[in-house]
Amino acid sequence: MTTTPVLDALWEVHHLERDRLAAAPQRGMPQSPRAQVAFLHRRLGRSTARVAALLGVHPETVRRYLRGQRRNPPPDFAARLHDAVAARFRSRLARKADAEIRRRGLRAYLTATFTFYSPSAGSSDDGRERRLDEDLTPSETERLLAARDEGNESRALAIAGQGVAEAYFGLRGTGMDVTVRDLVAVKFEL
């Protein structure tokens, strides 16, 4: 099994922010069975058959809830309905969490071996382990989230390492490349 510490750390901060948003009262979360079925109906392209297949009921049952002819679902159906709505509503919270991460930016904590390379000066042969923590720029944060969504661990590590090292050593704009090897620990926070 492949280990992905950088991606895991990015997902962890994403889930923490999503859970923080979920703990706040959510405006718009449908509560009644009719509103919940209508929410799923809209989210699934206004397809009664797709909603019925998702919930394991006959399409006519979905139509009855949409028309308001059924109001009190059996407990097992109510649980399936609530779970389906919560899962789709949570995806809205996930988008909000990513938007908040982009807005506020990330602070990265890295413990790893850093080596440097410059076209004019060459490379540092003896990288050494350092424990650095710095704020990432908005563009670095955006690229990190893109790498997370692609599942690209090596790219995420390179972006985080370059961003942290450039900020710590004042290398932004110098053209010096940073390589991160032997990652010991990584953590992100807002």
**Low-confidence parts, pLDDT < 50 over ≥5 residues?**
none
Beta-sheet strand percentage?
15-25%
C-alpha-based Rg, rounded: 23 Å
Structural class: alpha+beta
**Residue-averaged pLDDT, rounded?**
87
Shape: elongated
By DSSP, the count of extended strands is 4
**Share of helix, binned:** 55-70%
Helical segment count: 7
- H/E element order: HHHHHEEEHHE
What would you note in describing this structure?
- This protein has 190 residues and is an alpha+beta fold.
- It is built from 7 helices and 4 strands; from the N terminus they run αααααβββααβ.
- Strands 1, 2, 3 and 4 form a 4-stranded antiparallel sheet that branches.
- Helix 1 crosses helix 5 and helix 2 crosses helix 5.
- 23% of the residues are buried.
Please describe the topology of this protein:
Blueprint: H1 5-23, H2 33-43, H3 48-55, H4 59-67, H5 75-104, E1 107-118, E2 122-123, E3 128-135, H6 138-150, H7 153-169, E4 177-189
Helix pairs in contact: 1-5, 1-6, 2-4, 2-5, 3-4, 5-6, 6-7
